[in-house]
Amino acid sequence: MDRLVTTLLFSSFLLLSLFSTTSYAQTQNCSAFAFRNNQNFATCNPLPLLNSVLHWTYHSDNHTVDLAYRHGGVTDSDWVAWGLNINGGRMAGAQCLVAFKNSSGQIQAYTAPIADYFTQLRQGFLSFNVPRIEAEFLNNEYIIFASLELPSGRTSFNQVWQNGQVSGQALQAHSQSGDNMRSFGSVDFANGRLGNDGGGSITSRQRKRNVHGVLNAVSWGVLMPMGAVFARYLKVFKSANPAWFYLHVACQTSAYAVGVAGWGTGLKLGSDSVGIKFTTHRNIGITLFCLGTLQVFALLLRPKPDHKYRLYWNIYHHAIGYAVISLSITNVFEGFDALNGQKNWKRAYIGVIIAIGAIAVLLEAFTWFIVIKRKKTDSNKNLQNGTNGVNGYGNGTHQQA
After folding, report:
1. Per the confidence metrics, is the pTM higher than 0.85?
2. What keywords tag this UniProt record (predicted)?
3. According to the 3-state scheme, what is the secondary structure of the chain?
4. Total number of domains constituting the chain
5. Residues annotated as binding site?
């Protein structure tokens, strides 16, 4: 009982800690925050991702903005950036403010225009003037202070924000999954509103990624393991023959067909997402497609049960099948990382896999019980038949006696 109470208290503490972390930028870190230079801002808004907050004061008389961008939960071996994209929606074309700790131990802040997805955040002039920029690092938080002369005639812009690691003087690429792929939105400096385009609404590309994820999770991640369960456990029951075979073939061919559709959508997403790569996920996907295709051809070339090559075919078929299932489950989880934090889907899939695994364990024990019991029954019958003289030799001995 004491152990149960301790476990519940510890779990509650972890949940509270997690909630505190996720709400970091949404409560006390906004209007109540006190800057060390006693600077005040008229407006502040927590950004939906990456523990970031944007403070600003808009001066309508000269169309300028004084702002402070805060990015928490990082170390001094990281870099952070915030920027406006005047004509685009995401990273390419963004006009950024960057801060990091250089090799001499100083916090360096500068401007960096981003021309494409292969940027190294080199220093350069922006498309609008930035009369002032400076930065500080304190308590695992970067703060970039800047003054911007906004492009004329506009107060609403798309914004992006990001963080990554620093190696020496080189700023490394940011993470290609999770919140780092959704950290974009919009800001209106005049009315103080943010648009959660990156953290809230679903874009056309995101819908395609969701479709890709569903197709592959259902096919490779669910139907394939189910087909293996049918083949391994149902054939033990004599009454299930040949129904188990047709169920197995139906599951595997359906999984392959849907999986090919999911693979095709993945190729399309890759071609449409220049500069965004999920190398491990892509390589496993290509491997799965090749192995799955081999399994389909193996079904067409399956020898008869009494053929001399049937044993080798069975070894090949089982080895490739289990390899496909292992890679499929692994790649589904790789895909969840690429789907930008779809935690509910991930939890649902974990539940499905646990259920299939539990069923497999129970059926494994049950089928072994049946096989052992059947062997004992056959052994007893053979022994009984021998004792009663049914085998012919017994009859002769009895007659001689």
Report:
1. no
2. Electron transport, Iron, Membrane, Metal-binding, Signal, Transmembrane, Transmembrane helix, Transport
3. CHHHHHHHHHHHHHHHHHHHHHCCCCCCCCCCCCCCCCCCCCEEEECCCCCEEEEEEEECCCCEEEEEEEEECCCCCEEEEEEEECCCCCCCCCEEEEEEECCCCCEEEEEEECCCCCCCCCCCCCCCCCCEEEEEECCCEEEEEEEEECCCCCCEEEEEEEEEEEECCEECCCCCCHHHHCCEEEEECCCCEEECCCCCCCCHHHHHHHHHHHHHHHHHHHHHHHHHHHHHHHHHCHHHCCHHHHHHHHHHHHHHHHHHHHHHHHHHHHHHCCCCCCHHHHHHHHHHHHHHHHHHHHHHCCCCCCCCCHHHHHHHHHHHHHHHHHHHHHHHHHHHHHCCCCHHHHHHHHHHHHHHHHHHHHHHHHHHHHHHHHHHHHHHHHHHHHHCCCCCHHHHHHHHC
4. 2
5. 212, 248, 281, 317
Q: pLDDT for 246-281, tens place per residue?
A: 888 888 889 999 989 988 888 887 776 655 667 888
Residue 269 lies in a domain: yes
Please report the pLDDT score of residue 376 as a whole number.
78
Per the domain annotation, does 141 fall within a domain?
Answer: yes
Last residue within a domain, chosen from 171, 197, 223: 197
- CATH of residue 232: 1.20.120.1770
Residue with tokens 């299932």: 325
For the chain, the average pLDDT equals 79
In a domain, 145, yes or no: yes
The whole domain housing 184 covers 43-197
In this predicted model, what pLDDT tens digit does every residue of 129-158 receive, in sequence order? 999 999 999 989 999 999 999 988 888 888
Residues 303 and 376 occupy one common structural domain: yes
